[in-house]
Amino acid sequence: MNDIVVKTEDVVKEYRMGSNILRALDGINIEIERGEYISLMGPSGSGKSTLFNMIGALDRPTEGQVYIDGQNMSQLSQRQIAAFRCHRVGYIFQSYNLLHVRSAHGNVTLPMIFAGISEKERNQKAEKLLDMVGLGDRMYHLPDELSGGQRQRVAIARALANDPSIVLADEPTANLDTITGREIIDLIKRLNTEQGVTVISATHDLKMLDVSDRIVDIRDGLVERIRNRDEIEIEVGEVGGEGE
Amino acid sequence: MQQRTPIEEQIDLPFVESLRISFQSLKIRFGRSIITTAGITLGIAFLVSVWTNNEIGVALQESGRQTTINTFEETTEQGISTKDIWLIVMSLIVCVVGIANSMLMAVTERFREIGTMKCLGALDGFVVRLFLLESGFQGFSGALIGALIGTLGAVLLGLKDYGLDLFFYFPLLPAQPENGPMQLGVIIVILLGCILGMILAVIGSSFPAWRAAKLPPAEAMRTEV
Ligand SMILES: Nc1ncnc2c1ncn2[C@@H]1O[C@H](COP(=O)(O)OP(=O)(O)OP(=O)(O)O)[C@@H](O)[C@H]1O
Ligand SMILES: [Mg+2]
Questions:
Q1: CA-nearest residue, atom 26 of ligand 1
Q2: To probe the interface with B, which of A13, A72, A85 has the most B CB atoms within 10 Å?
Q3: All residues with CB under 5 Å from ion ligand 2
Q4: Can you tell me the ipTM of this complex?
Q5: In whole angstroms, what separates CA B43 from the centre of its chain?
Q6: What digits encode the pLDDT tens for the residues A129-168?
Q7: Which tens digit of pLDDT belongs to each residue from A170-186?
């Protein structure tokens, strides 16, 4: 298997704050294969979210290149980037980022509206996806009327609306209790195994370890090490299913 | 590295779709929309009341009717006192600043929403159009209500000053007295108030919305409100 979906080349991201320059990413090189489940781990402030934003075209690197499906992201036009976000990637955030003016159903249909899918088709798809995440009976509730776990399920359904090949999840379980977090992880893992979606997830959550194919440890904006699944299992045994 | 299908170009949304999204947003955020709209209403009500009050004053003076309260000492031959010009300019400034401020606040608290929509594939232009539609509607309806309230206020003031004579000489339509300045008439003042309110609301919201839409989504979503 040598089908690389995501490749970063010496990605550097600097934030300028007045006269200070903060190097959040200091030359990241990673390759992610299609269908992999990757966890980005590392202490707070190590640069996980920053890397997440680079891979998802939510921000531009200061230096270096990001390739998705072989495409150099820095060479895309505005319209191509919008289409890329719309079709190729599904985003899941720690704080859900649902549009609170739209119902669960309305949130799931929005990316399909942007994709130009007909009303009938997108309604069917939204119902199917919300059913799949277990919210068949809550479709027309506003996000404010849902629990954290339910909101994250809506976010997952929304992320899948346009059949992305990559799902990016930034600490999807950080605001959830252990059991709900477990359910969300299982749901994401199921997409990965059943639909072959590539999952890249930033996390502190040790529950994430045993579903990951590889773990990328980030420290101070650098890749500290990359561990494979077999190396992980021993360590998971050691920590003994500790939660957040 | 395997080359997959090249990344296509994002399409534009049909206008009705934008319209639907913006109206739904106004409906669900009704409480908040009302507060923003109230800002516009107040600004325009103030402006229109001062302006109409002035129109009434000039019209009744033209008619030869003297005000019961003697406040026209500084009146020029043209009939508009510097005090009235000052009042109108001040109310215009209050109106502009007030509306710009309430629209700016309304957009700022939605930065995160803007970032999220861009994550889902919204074009910058769509975001701007959405705010344009919403604020245009808010601006027009808020300004219309404000203009009516302002006119009512000016009429009540006029009744106090001139009594029922007010209605005989009421400057409803534009008029050009022989030796006075052009009078716009109350209808035109109301209309101008509505247009001004709408333009101010649209500029006041689409400028910050445009700036937010230009931001990378990661940046827009960082703002905590
Ligand atoms: N927009 C920004 N402006 C300035 N500094 C930033 C910005 N975004 C991130 N940083 C800084 O970059 C560094 C990396 O931040 P990042 O959010 O990527 O960390 P993280 O690994 O996701 O942390 P956490 O686990 O707490 O989410 C931090 O020191 C942070 O303060
Ligand atoms: Mg983070």
A1: A44
A2: A85
A3: A 49
A4: 0.89
A5: 7
A6: 999 999 999 999 999 999 999 999 999 999 999 999 999 9
A7: 999 988 888 888 988 99
> B143 and B194 in contact (C-beta within 8 Å)?
yes
Distance of CA A158 to the CA centre of its chain: 12
Q: Which residues does chain A have within 8 Å of residue B116's beta carbon, measured at their own beta carbons?
A: 97-99
DSSP code at position B175:
B
**What is this structure's pTM?**
0.85
Residues of B whose CB is below 8 A from A142 = 28
Residues A113, B17: C-beta atoms closer than 8 Å:
yes
Ligand 1 centroid distance, CA of A27 (Å): 15
CA A233 to chain B, closest CA, distance in angstroms equals 30
Looking at CA atoms only, how far is residue B224 from chain A in angstroms? Answer: 11
Of B127, B100, B126, the closest CA to residue B212 belongs to B127
CATH of residue A228: 3.40.50.300
Cα separation, A27 vs B59, in Å, equals: 75
A170 domain residue, yes or no = yes
Q: Give DSSP secondary structure letters for chain A.
A: ---EEEEEEEEEEEEEETTEEEEEEEEEEEEEETT-EEEEE--TTSSHHHHHHHHTTSS--SEEEEEETTEEGGG--HHHHHHHHHHTEEEEETT----TTS-HHHHHHHHHHHTT--HHHHHHHHHHHHHHTT-TT-TT--GGGS-HHHHHHHHHHHHTTT--SEEEEESTTTTS-HHHHHHHHHHHHHHHHHH--EEEEEE--GGGGGG-SEEEEEETTEEEEEEEHHHHHHHHHHHTS---
Range of the domain at A125: 34-60+77-243
Here the tokens at position A201 are 């997830």
Q: Is A226 on the interface with B (CB under 8 A)?
A: no
Contact across the interface for A114 and B2, Cβ inside 8 Å = no
pLDDT in tens, B57-108: 777 776 665 554 444 444 444 455 677 778 778 877 887 888 788 888 888 8
Q: Parallel, antiparallel, or unpaired for β A198-203 and A166-170?
A: parallel
Q: What DSSP character marks residue B135? A: H
Which ligand is nearest the CA of A24, by number? Answer: 1
Give the residues surrounding ligand 1 with Cβ less than 6 Å away.
A 15, 17, 22, 24, 42, 44-50; B 222
**Total domains, chain A:** 1
